[in-house]
TrEMBL record:
PANTHER family: CONSERVED MEMBRANE PROTEIN, MEMBRANE PROTEIN
InterPro entries: YkvI-like (IPR038728)
Keyword annotations: Membrane, Transmembrane, Transmembrane helix
Organism of provenance: Clostridium muellerianum
Keyword Phosphoprotein: no
The protein's name: Membrane protein YkvI
Length: 365
């Protein structure tokens, strides 16, 4: 009989870690939500619900299997679901994808800090890189502890912006329909012309970059029930953050036209103090995502807190800092991202097939 004890503190921590992992620079600036959801107007809220349904099942399954199988290497989950040959293809694709995004975020970190605080770009990049490396060297458990606390804080700040939007909306109830009608004419980039597909695509992209991380989080739980509860709570909290941000971006659509950082514009409009906190939040979001993506890359090559792990993490950080502004990694991600969505759909099919066969439900003792 498997242990089914549940610690509420651990559930919140693991749920927060998942939310923090997903709330990186793209989400915290508001650009991801804008392109995948808000550009669809009020249908963006329905798209968020599609994300919720898909991601709840996928995270529930991955957290559960992470706890049941306790893979020594989280990338072993690809072979578990897809077999040896295809599993290896997925493993290396995932490593490349995660490291490419790590380098892009590291390169963008310096520019972001320079834009907000006027600090030299290379200093900003270096500070984020050193903080991320230091956190990574502490190991996966400590990383989960740290970003598990950061996740709920991020959601609270997004909630403040969303609630402000709802309050404004209560006085001007026609704002949502007005913004929905105008969205296609405002020049915003959109992830897809179909609102339902945008919600599904966001779920598959979120899946593809977080599979090893979710497996590690599941392994960290005290029981299968605890792991699955954390997965559902984390996905639900993240979806609430999406919906609140969609509402805020629709309500304040005039403020964010042509702006690279919609959340900062909205926060500054609500209160300069909130704007200052949001600028800090964006930097913290970049740091937590960079640390998480670095750790997940290195976990392919060595167990955490080993000498080999520390050396590889340090080398990859130096490479990321050096080449971040030189190599066209943004183009690499533009190539990897669309493929990531479709490859995640195929992986999901393998997951569902294995789970339905029943072999996913057996536990190794």
């Amino acid at each position: 009989m498997e242990n089914q004890s549940v610690s509420l503190k651990k559930v919140i921590l693991l749920a927060g870690a998942l939310a923090a992992y997903w709330i990186g620079s793209g989400f915290s600036t508001g650009q991801e939500v804008l392109q995948f959801f808000t550009t669809s107007g009020t249908k963006g809220i329905a798209a968020a619900l599609i994300f919720l349904v898909l991601m709840s099942y996928l995270s529930y399954t991955l957290y559960g299997i992470g706890q049941k199988k306790k893979f020594e290497n989280p990338y072993d989950v690809f072979e578990y679901y897809c077999g040896k040959a295809l599993g290896q293809v997925y493993t290396w694709y995932n490593v490349i994808l995660i490291y490419a995004i790590f380098v892009v975020m590291l390169a963008g970190a310096g520019a972001t800090i320079h834009q907000y605080y006027g600090i030299q770009t290379y200093i900003g990049t270096g500070v984020i890189a050193i903080l991320a490396l230091g956190t990574t060297l502490l190991g996966v458990e400590k990383l989960i502890d740290i970003i598990g606390v950061i996740g709920p804080v991020k959601i609270v700040f997004v909630a403040i912006v969303g609630v402000a939007g709802i309050i404004t909306l209560s006085g001007q109830p026609t704002l949502l329909s007005e913004a929905s009608n105008l969205m296609p004419t405002l020049g915003f980039k959109s992830a897809s012309s179909n609102w339902a597909w945008s919600g599904a695509l966001y779920a598959f992209l979120a899946l593809m970059v977080s599979i090893p991380f979710q497996v590690d989080c599941g392994k960290s739980a005290g029981s299968v029930k605890e792991a699955r509860s954390a997965a559902l709570l984390g996905t639900f909290a993240f979806t609430i953050a999406i919906i609140l941000l969609v509402i805020a971006e629709l309500v304040y659509y005039k403020l964010i036209v042509g702006k690279q950082v919609p959340t900062l514009e909205i926060a500054n409009h609500i209160s300069p103090v909130l704007g200052l906190f949001f600028s800090v939040l964006i930097v913290v979001s970049i740091y937590s995502a960079v640390a998480s993506f670095l750790l997940m890359t290195v976990r392919k090559f060595a167990p955490d807190k080993t000498k080999k792990f520390n050396i590889i993490a340090t080398v990859l950080t130096i490479i990321g800092m050096f080449f971040g502004g030189v190599l066209p990694f943004d183009k690499l991600v533009n190539i990897l991202y669309p493929f990531a969505g479709y490859s995640a759909i195929v992986f999901t099919c393998f997951m569902i097939f294995k789970e339905l066969k029943g072999s996913g439900g057996k536990q190794d003792n």
